[in-house]
Known about the structure:
alpha+beta, ten-stranded mixed sheet, globular
Amino acid sequence: MTIFRTSLRNFLSHKGRMALSLIAVLLSVAFVCGTLVFTDTMTATFDKLFATVASDVDVQPKEKDNAQESSIPATLPASLRDRLAGVPGVAKVEPEAATRNITVTTANKQSLSPSSGAPTVGLNWNDSQRKSMDITRGHQPRGADEAVLDSDTAEKHHVKVGDTLRVIAAPGDFRVHVVGLATYKTTNPGAAVLYFDTATAQTKLLGSARAFTGYGLTAASGVSDEQLKKNVTAAIGEGYQVHTAAESKKENKKSLGSVLDVMKYALLGFAGIAVLVGIFLIVNTFSMLVAQRTREIGLMRAIGSSRRQINRSVLAEALLLGVTGSVLGIGGGIGLAVGLMKLMGSLGMKLDTADLTVKATTPLVGLAIGVVVTVLAAYLPARRAGKISPMAALRDAGNPGDAKAGKVRAALGVLLTAAGGGALLLAARSDRASSGSALLGLGILLSLIGLVVVGPLLAGLIVRVISAVVLRVFGPVGRLAERNALRNPRRTGATASALMIGLSLVAALSVVGSSMVASATDQVDRSVGADFIMESGGKGYTPAMLKAARSARYLDHLTEYTEVSARVTTPDGKSGNQRLTAADPSYAQDLRRQTVQGKLSGAYAADAMSVPEGFAKDHKVKLGDRLTVAMTDGSTARLRVNAITSDDTAFDKGAMYLSTATAKRYLPADKMPPPRMLFAKAQDGHAKEAAASLKAAMADYPQIKVRDQSDYKKLIKDQVGQLLNLIYGLLALAVIVAILGVVNTLALSVVERTREIGLMRAIGLSRRQLRRMIRLESVVIALFGALLGLGLGLGWGATAQKLLALQGLDVLEIPWPTLGAVFLGSALVGLAAALAPAFRAGRMNVLKAIATD
């Protein structure tokens, strides 16, 4: 208890010096707990939704392996409804006619599709829908020209009852009047939903009055879901998917869980980086506190305190810091989760804070992380405190054994850094992505640890170089700042290492992102011969869309592109499911693929195809061989290999080509997938006219994006940029914690040098010069960390690009402007971090400072 009381007294007396470490623990724990609360809330909310919408038993078409993609979903015959109604235990049968492949536009051609990428769903209104939706305005659809829209989409796009909407579906386009608005009883999953009467949903969405996409069955009183499933399976056979409500909920939860797991573990990964950076801050804090209390600890040792008691005293302070920071972090995490829910709401997914889910394990995880990390970080300073001898402390001597420890540390750091560099070199030379990725991960880990360990050794060299360039112009004040930065290399190294971690990841990702954009742009220049690329948003082109595109003027040709599923058997007797690229022969001009044998145009001949180089080597396929190609839902063909394409590309890598005419020969018309993309070539000298004509022709279809090559390059750049900005935003937490580390180091350093500062002020150093000295010291430390981080990140990024080159992304692009901006930004960060410590130092009373022990 005496040790605890002493620790509590020390903790409270130095609470100001502990504040920034407390914030670091708080932020790290808040990120972890916020992630867990948010994903648990999402899971619980959707569990409630799945339980609401599930019927006692659902009957749906059986999924086929490698099925052909179609704009119209798989269906069941309408005649099955009567058979299901006659099954023992069935009280009610609700037919379902639903599709996710529609586009809905307003009168001014504004698409109602969610910006989040969620689908636009069209389905029939029946009693099953009333489980999850209430019509809060108007009435249910009663005819072919009526529809009900979900209220969230209506509010977002200012759609009112009575407005006219245009529905673009696979069977054709049609218009409806909004006769009602429906509101979710639980949560809006983010989709736009439009309800029709059953007959309209069948004919206008599925293209047939004799088909449904599924049936929802209600069990009779006293009949369990399991028993009803058995009865249904016995009555209709095994050719269907039959699920109970519990099984449907489990399947939906599994699908959602895979998405949420990716989100959760990605966020926890960034939280882990912030925790790692926070460790440096805590280590520095306790190391400096121990150094500042050397005399106090020596007195305690002199009056009988053992090394173990001193050690426990410091660890008890760390425990108090960890518990306090964790408790505050848990509360902050709940607030962060609420903020994320509000953000999802702005994207269209309405999550109710009443459903906020805080599992019992979440606070325990947060508390464990905060306490364990803090105590472990304080362990080395605590050991150092325990080793202080009474006499050395009373003489204000340094800690024994530092020189020996420094040599061992330096040797270990050099060894780890060299091992990491070797692993990165081997990864760059690897010809297999799997082994190269493993070596890259090992190289990143070893090089990071190595530079952290060897940081104090590098501080002496790099800080002097930076000082010679940056500080010399400031005269004696600059030399004083350099001396202060070099006074304790271990402290400087630890502070800079915290900043290094975040900036190394920023630099590596910048190199990878820039290289991906440059490689893709180079591939477009080298490979894409088409002037225009038109994507359908994954929904496929309807006949009306194709007719509109063909009406455009000034075009040399228009190419349809899609994919078909088949099982391919090679001459060596091996077979496997493949996706074959079916296109018009003009596609050979639109995408200039290099071949190692034959000509690509030959693949578009009748009953011909191409195979990629790697596939040919693996299966010993030669030019002229015939492959057995069993089309899914179609007949079997014997196709001649007329071309073997090079694998040295990023576009369509691994694709097998054949003509659309060949695919249609072996597939029924209703099983032939619609075109997914269109490529167009303008007539010579009419590129601008062709672009204007194409855009005008497709104006009625907002989901179709007409892009020329420059637009397509910009799209690639924007997509990579959005991903990088998201990652940078998540890394910002680690950088913020690192900045707190710089502030904390300077603040404690000012306290440590109170008497020295008083003496310097007494012999003529002005307040302005003092503040400038501290700011320059901060800038040097920040630039030291930036140099380490940017150098390390360049190595990681360049190695990662070598692995991407195996996938055809073979251009290494170093984003020097970005890296330069990060370096200069680090100097500004150093200046900002020093503002508070410098201000405090400048306000010191000179006489009191000199009198300080």
